[in-house]
Design brief:
Elements lengths: L9 E12 L1 H11 L7 E8 L2 E8 L2 H4 L2 H6 L3 E9 L14 E5 L2 E11 L2 H10 L9 H13 L5 H9 L4 E8 L4 E5 L8 E4 L5 E4 L2 H6 L3 E5 L5 E4 L6 E3 L12 H7 L5 E2 L2 E2 H15 L6 E4 L5 H11 L7 E3 L18 H5 E3 L1 H4 L3 E6 L6 H12 L4 E6 L21 H4 L2 H8 L3 E4 L5 H4 L9 H4 L30 E2 L3 E6 L2 E6 L17 H15 L8 E3 L18 E4 L3 E2 L3 E7 L2 H10 L1 E2 L2 E2 L9 E10 L1 H4 L8 H11 L4 H25 L2 E12 L5 E4 L8 E5 L15 H9 L9 H19 L4
Parallel strand pairs: 16-19, 19-20, 20-21
Antiparallel strand pairs: 1-4, 1-10, 2-3, 2-4, 5-6, 6-7, 7-8, 8-12, 9-10, 9-11, 12-13, 14-15, 17-18, 22-23, 23-24, 24-26, 25-26, 27-32, 28-31, 28-32, 29-30, 32-33, 32-34
Helix pairs in contact: 4-5, 5-6, 9-10, 18-24, 21-22, 23-24
Bound molecules: iron/sulfur cluster.
Length: about 775
């Protein structure tokens, strides 16, 4: 998979040393080699004789740990670290790890890879007993369960063993106490964990063996499922197996297919060899007459070698990959991205031109990336493209620490193989068969394959919504009345949260509230949900659930269906942030008149519909100015925010600006791959109870954004759009109409909204 369509959540690394030294630097190198397991935040905690010194932040290892920061972490005999990818709306610093907790028996730091399936229940139990949580990650739940058990256990390792009896799901942990480092693996061994030793007697624990190699530690062995290993500086490790043999080993098979580095060995199986095996089996299952076999970098390459070897078709290097692209936090002013596929991957035309190509990739998630890659091969002259996938079709979500999404966004879960082939545009397609999975692992039969079969070895969460309302057994159904009614939605207060019900009214012009567009509310709610899900790794959002079962009973009536969202209560910032990625609409008029857009002077000679080098961010404020079309500058936004949040103006303005751009870029990238251009959009943010920024309001809907079809896009021309354009055009042509829109205009508008929704999500309303 090229575009990190699916992400591993985390990687962990720790070191103990018989002597005091610059342990942070060793952890830095360990984390650096685990960067593929998490790229959004990282952290290191150093233990100097029981005193913990930590640093963690958003960003990749080499960005966060500049030499100065590493030296400030000081020296010690133990240090642990973590790289993280956030899957649950929590890329914020509060969720970066390792987390450090101070309890009555001393300090403890925890680094976690995996996901508990019962964290909701455990968290509620802890909260009822007085625990106060500072983050939304389940690692804090793990930490509090251990510290609670520590109150009556004589050692940290016994407290961990006790707490493990409560944990369900996946966890590979490195825990640091004032005197020890402890490695822990869940009884299923879902996520990998291993340890090794350096020549001078330092023990290293890591998610993958490639990180041991990076610090010149000799691989000793994998941590067994359910095992606790205690490392004390200068002593031999001690194994505790109280929780071993509770279950059969079920290592995640997708580690071998995609997540892990090919130079790692997990539970005795070489990742590279597993991928080559997969390629060989694919060649036997789906033979084809072809001239060349190529793999999609990086995780398709090893399987391509296997396919070529088995089939006798020559192996070729068909792509050059740009290895130096970091993740999304793009500052304004940087070059705007056309498409990540185009930037990250280029076809070597001379290798594929005129050839029948077998293209090997590890998997297909939404199908958009594969579609683009196949097109690039055809554009480069490939005569035929036969796609072979080294994993079976995804049919279910992963609850064990990866972000394989629910079935609604998995193309193969919702379409036949022929339809997938049709969508991707290849000549033939072959997915690895589930019955062949043991063949990949040299015949091993027990492993987790839940995302391919829907059978979860370690169970699945009972509560999927973050907050499920208590049922109102025996009592009459509670009536709710809106606390606020607006153009776009009605707001209800509900048990400490908010219920948002999207209305069917047109929102462009207050005066025409009387007009209704049947079904608009559902499109807006479902589309916003889609974008909220897509961007949740970048910024937390306010959506708790759109599942009707998570709502109070009152909202389970047909009229609320599909248009109702359960949200966290937020304090909305007095700003709306508009990103203009293209010269469109009012932006074009302003530019024609003054050469400026929102106060920003643009280069001369721009054309209508032209893409801007870098999207322009224009905060607007209703609270301050009273008209959301009036823009203010970035500097003015600092002033406004400073007035409302003294001392935080610059920080909030900077975060809002960066996030707005990052969200726009991520969404635009996605939309382009689905054949839609996001010309401009409006985003709003709020602050949660901890004062952290949260994305809020209706995001990227046809009411607040301008979508153009990519097909037929031409610079210098007005674009057809999937938004309220019919309404605007009709009103312009009928200035004396008193805003009584004819039915056909209303119908055309909703048809466009639904078309955009279908194009973007692949689903129909
Ligand atoms: Fe791995 Fe899939 Fe199991 Fe998740 S569900 S642990 S990705 S095999």
């Amino acid at each position: 998979m090229l575009m990190t369509e699916i992400k591993e959540e985390c990687g962990v690394f720790g070191i103990t040393s018989p002597f005091t030294y610059d342990a942070a630097t060793t952890v830095y190198y360990g984390l650096y080699s685990l960067q593929h397991r998490g790229q959004e935040s990282c952290g290191i905690v150093v233990n100097d004789d029981g005193v913990f010194c930590s640093h963690k932040d958003l960003g990749q290892v080499n960005e966060v740990f500049q030499p100065q920061i590493l030296s400030e972490l000081g020296q010690g005999q133990i240090a642990i670290g973590h790289v993280r990818y956030a899957t649950t709306g929590s890329a914020d610093r509060a969720n970066a790890q390792p987390i450090v907790v101070n309890h009555i028996k001393g300090s403890m730091a925890v680094a976690h890879n995996g996901n508990l399936t019962n964290s909701f229940e455990l968290r509620r139990e802890l909260e009822l007993n007085g625990s106060i949580f500072h983050s939304t990650s389940d690692t804090e739940v793990i930490a509090y369960c251990i510290t609670r058990a520590r109150l009556h256990c004589d050692s940290i390792e016994h407290a961990i063993s006790e707490a493990m009896k409560k944990f369900e799901g996946a966890y590979s942990l490195i825990i640091m106490s004032p005197a020890k480092m402890i490695a822990v693996r869940d009884p299923y061994g879902l996520r990998p964990l291993c340890y090794g030793i350096t020549e001078d007697g330092r023990y290293a624990v890591a998610s993958e063996s490639c990180a041991l190699d990076a610090v010149s530690a000799k691989f000793m062995r994998d941590v067994k499922p359910g095992e606790i290993i205690v490392f004390e500086p200068g002593k031999e490790p001690v194994s505790i197996e109280d929780n071993c043999s509770r279950s059969k080993q079920h290592t995640c098979i997708f580690e071998y297919i995609y997540f892990a580095r090919p130079d790692s060995v997990i539970d005795g199986i070489d990742v590279h060899r597993a991928r080559v095996n997969a390629g060989r089996i694919l060649a036997r299952t789906y033979p084809v007459d072809a001239d060349i076999v190529i793999g999609v970098p990086d995780s398709g390459l090893d399987a391509a070698i296997g396919y070529a070897d088995e089939s006798g078709i020559p192996y070729g290097i068909g792509f050059v990959k740009n290895k130096y692209i970091g993740r999304t936090f793009i500052e304004p002013g940087q070059a705007h991205r056309e498409s990540l596929v185009d930037i990250k991957l280029n076809v070597i035309a001379s290798v594929v031109a005129g050839k029948r190509v077998v293209l090997i990739d590890d998997s297909v998630v939404r199908g958009t990336t594969s579609k683009r890659i196949v097109k690039k091969l055809r554009d480069a002259g490939a005569r035929e493209v036969h796609l072979r996938l080294a994993s079976p079709t995804f049919v279910a979500a992963c609850y064990y620490g990866t972000d394989i999404p629910d079935t609604s966004t998995l193309i193969a879960a919702n379409n036949s193989i022929d339809e997938v082939k049709e969508y991707i545009g290849c000549d033939s397609i072959g997915f690895y068969r589930t019955e062949d999975l043991p063949g990949m692992l040299d015949g091993r039969k027990t492993f987790c394959q839940a995302c391919f079969t829907g059978e979860y070895p370690a169970g699945s969460p009972k509560v999927t919504g973050k907050y499920r309302f208590e049922s109102k057994r025996g009592s009459e159904m509670k009536e709710y009345t809106p606390v606020k009614e607006g153009k776009v939605r009605e707001l209800y207060e509900a048990d400490g949260n908010m219920i948002m019900v999207a209305t069917d009214r047109i929102s462009a012009f207050d005066v025409i509230l009387k007009n209704k567009i049947d079904g608009k509310g559902i499109v807006l709610t479902q589309m916003a949900k889609f974008w909220f899900d897509l961007t949740k790794g970048l910024v937390p959002n306010h959506v708790i659930s759109t599942d009707v079962n998570d709502m109070p009973e009152f909202f389970r009536k047909p009229e609320f269906k599909g248009r109702t969202t359960l949200c966290r209560k937020l304090e909305m910032l007095p700003l709306e942030c508009i990103v203009r990625g293209y010269i469109s609409g009012s932006c074009w008029n302003a530019y024609k008149e003054s050469g400026t857009v929102c106060g920003i002077r643009l280069p001369e000679g721009l054309k209508e519909s032209q893409k801007l080098d870098s999207p322009i961010y224009t905060p607007s404020t209703k609270a301050e100015i009273g008209d959301h079309d009036i823009s203010i500058s970035y500097e003015e936004s600092i002033e406004v925010l400073e007035k409302y949040y003294p001392g935080r103006g610059s920080e909030l303005a900077r975060k809002v600006r960066n996030l707005t751009i990052a969200i726009y870029n991520k969404c635009e990238d996605y939309a382009l791959s689905r054949g839609i251009i996001i010309a401009d959009t409006k985003l709003e943010f709020g602050l949660d109870e901890n004062g952290e920024l949260v994305l809020a309001d209706e995001v990227l809907t046809p009411d607040s954004s301008r979508f153009w079809p990519l097909d037929g896009y031409e610079e210098g021309k007005p674009q057809p759009s999937y938004d309220k354009q019919f309404v605007r055009d009709w009103l312009k042509a009928n200035p004396d109409s008193d805003y009584n829109l004819p039915q056909d205009v209303i119908e055309k508008t909703i048809a466009k909204y639904k078309e955009a929704y279908h194009l973007i999500t692949g689903k129909t309303i």
